[in-house]
Specification:
Layout lengths: L2 H8 L6 E5 L10 H5 L3 E5 L3 H10 L5 E4 L2 E2 L4 E8 L2 E4 L6 H6 L7 E8 L11 E4 L6 H5 L7 E5 L1 E2 L2 E2 L3 H10 L2 E6 L3 E6 L7 H27 L1
Parallel strand pairs: 1-2, 1-8, 2-3, 4-7, 8-9
Antiparallel strand pairs: 5-6, 5-7, 9-13, 10-11, 12-13
GO molecular function, one term: methyltransferase activity
Keywords: Methyltransferase, Transferase
Protein name: FkbM family methyltransferase
Length: 225
Amino acid sequence: MTTLYQRLKEKKVTFKHVCEVGVYVPTVSNIGDFIKDGIAATLVEADPDVAVDIAIYFSRYNILVHPVAMWDYNGTLQLSKAAASTFVSALASSPALENDGFQVATGATFDVPCKRFSEIDTGAFDLLSIDIEGSEWYVLKYMISRPNVISIETHGKFYVNPFIKEIRQWMQANDYIIWYKDRSDSVYIKRNFFVVSGYEKIALGLKNTWLNLRRQKRHFRKLMR
């Protein structure tokens, strides 16, 4: 059971159509528990081999798999693969680049079809999870739906999403508030979708402090070298 699923169950909220962009292997899907509850799902995975595995794994359920990357245009895009991380080669920052020192020139690259998110968004998504290693902004930028819940990768160890400013501005402009953060994701909800408790607000403040201290520690170490 994922943290996202557990915490939303505790809030006693329901969904009709969930979407995940950047599933990776199906056993670790962030919305897999919702799918197994019988909720309709749209799954987007750029790695064609993994997309096949996803379709097979969830074949008993009401799902639609799109084996494409989400980007700023419709066409073809080069991706780099670094262990469990697959990201757009042209990005200046991604978790693999920042946290693991991965070099694009030394890794495996491959081309995949890419689309704007508006090409697959029916306007019906009420829960969205995005984890595409630095390209998350391009989902929000072209999104038609306004989900009640959006889980988006924004940070991790030393990494900060390269489009964090755009993401925060979009959330504010579209009336979202942050609910909680985990080790890599920020989870936003539509304002007034449910009440965020005082405890949850304190926990978010402590998480922000911890994340800032960790990044400052790295910066200090660099200065001391």
